[in-house]
Amino acid sequence: MFKRIELDMKRIMKSASLRIAMLVALLPLWLGGLSAQAANVSDGDKVAAVKIVEHTQVVVKDYHIEVALDAILDQLRLGTYELLIVTPELRANGDRKDLVATLPSFIITGSTRDRALAREVALGNAPSYMEPAPLFVTKRTNGKPQQVSYQAREVYQAWMLNAALYVRLDLTGCGKASEERLINPRVISEPYKPSYQLSYLVPEAEPVKNRADSYKASIAFRVNKDDIDPSYQNNRAVLEDVDSKVATIMKNKDLQVSDVRIVGYASPEGRASYNQDLAERRSRSFANYLVSKHGVNAQRLQVTGYGEDWGLVKQML
Fold first, then answer.
1. Residue 261 CB neighbours (<10 A)
2. Is 0.85 surpassed by the pTM of this model?
3. Is 288 buried (19+), middle (13-18) or exposed (0-12) by CB count in 10 A?
């Protein structure tokens, strides 16, 4: 009876050992299958599968420039021993290619590489790519949606006003690939510059305002004379008043004189024909005075002689 129990135990032990051996044998095959899936993707395609976008617009705050990015890893299939280093950089546009500000990197690891890296750091044997220290390290879980957010700041310098934002992506491990990607050609928008244009408003032409006005000046003439004598009677004062009014009108560019009427008279003594002629000569004499003294256009003058001035005679009686 004891021998039978011993035989049964041996059979159980052999069966358990066989199952464990099969499990151990199948485990590498399963892990190898996962690695093979990642290995089937080219190294360049792995890098290209990472989508980097700006989370918020770059800002300058407290004398620092702040950069915020999102890394979308949904399409990334990373080998278990691989890691991807992402390094943002600010670079000056134009001729100053030497002006570069390298921001802290962040690292994405495969599962085995993640454990190995954590052990190396804990033992004080951090690899060279950990210097300077990355902002963070995150493990990629293939086949699942994953997004990581990045935010870093750098002391602001004047050249950064016209700087572009790049990222370098470096794949290491079983494979190796690199890519340089432009994220924003100018991280700080150029200050607004207003554009000024002169516009001319041509007013509608105002209608010409016609105005009729009259001014009476009485020039005294000696008997049978048609020449103007300033010293005769009140002529000097009358001529000064005429000169003042005519000069004012001639200087005003907004006024256009259409015509000036000059009427001459003579006293009733003598023949009517003689008096008519004398009145016309006296009118022409005053017209010539306006032309020579003030430059009045002679074509604007209407000169008339009315002969005897019976109205004046009535005023004198």
1. 11
2. no
3. middle
The tokens of 123 are what?
């033992």
CA distances from 36 to 50, 144, 168 (A): 20, 17, 26
Which class for 266: exposed (0-12), middle (13-18), buried (19 or more C-beta within 10 A)? buried
Strand residues in the chain grouped as ranges (E): 51-61, 64-72, 83-92, 100-102, 106-109, 137-139, 147-155, 163-172, 177-184, 260-266, 301-308
**Residue 15 pLDDT grade (very low, low, confident, very high; cuts 50, 70, 90):** low
Q: Flag whether pLDDT at 126 surpasses 80.
A: yes
Of 306, 313, 312, 310, the C-alpha closest to 280 is: 306
What pLDDT, in 10s, does the model give residues 62-72? 888 999 999 99
Pairing of strands 64-72, 83-92: unpaired
**How wide is the angle at C-alpha 154 spanned by C-alphas 137 and 114, nearest 5°?**
5
Q: What is the dihedral of CA 89, 90, 91, 92, to 10 degrees?
A: -170
Q: Over the stretch 40-52, which tens digit does the pLDDT of each residue have?
A: 678 889 999 999 9
For residue 111, give the nearest of 49, 185, 34, 44 by alpha carbon: 34
Handedness of CA 245, 251, 255, 261 (dihedral sign): positive
pLDDT number for residue 310: 47
Answer whether the bond into residue 268 is a cis peptide, omega within 30°: no
Nearest partner of 168 among 96, 90, 113, judged by Cα: 90
First to last CA, the chain: 184
Q: What is the dihedral of CA 14, 18, 19, 22, to 10 degrees?
A: 170
